[in-house]
Amino acid sequence: MGTPINANVTVVNNFSFAADITLTHQFNGNPQQPAFVWNNVPGGGGITSPVVVTGNTGAGHDYWTMNVQGLDISAQVWSHLSQKTCTLESKDNNTTIAMSVSQNGWTLPLQSGGCSTGLSRTSTQIGVNVNIQNNFSEQASITLQHQYSDNAIQSWTWGNVWTGGQTMQVPPSLAVAIGSTNSGYDYWQISITLNNGQVWANSGWKRCTMEAADMDSEILMLISPSGWTIPLVSGGCSTGLSQQS
Fold first, then answer.
1. CATH 2.60.40.3820 for domain 4-121
2. Would you tell me which of 75, 129, 170, 229 could form a disulfide with 238, CB atoms 3.0–4.6 Å apart?
3. Can you give the pTM of this predicted structure?
């Protein structure tokens, strides 16, 4: 039957962003231990609280999975969801295993030898920081809307954006448009109300789709009587603006 092995496990988050981390462990054919979940673990070396995993010196192996959900704008997900075999031995009993995760992989430094393996980026979400420059000759209130596929519509409004000024200079400052690398499209609408009472807008929803190259980028849209530019890193788009009133 063998002798139970109990080891304390912590996880060091060496990604640059804070993350929710989920670890699972199972010895041989035993029931899998309930998943260990740590929320908002700081990046750059943040360490989780310890948990106890249980193995056995009898015949069998220990199996593990890891999932890291980033909490920055790109919401990156890095994981190893197929079970990783890395077996506890008697010398691992009552030790602390300081696992680490990063873009370079996942290490399981057991006293008995340990293991390491890669983590795959599985997230398809794209986050783009949006800033808008007012090139009208009047101070303006600007409303921007964005929708990816049939996701919920995102909407931001900035008041009192000066001529030549940018939305990042007034609340809510930068807007983060969320898209995806999955099949689907990004749609945008903009409305500008000038201090002289004129209202300018594009016609309907403008399709301009973010791609993987746009991940974590910052774009400066330009608006003027001549039109509206959406300068995505992946190529971008432009369209006309017309006076509505």
1. yes
2. 229
3. 0.60
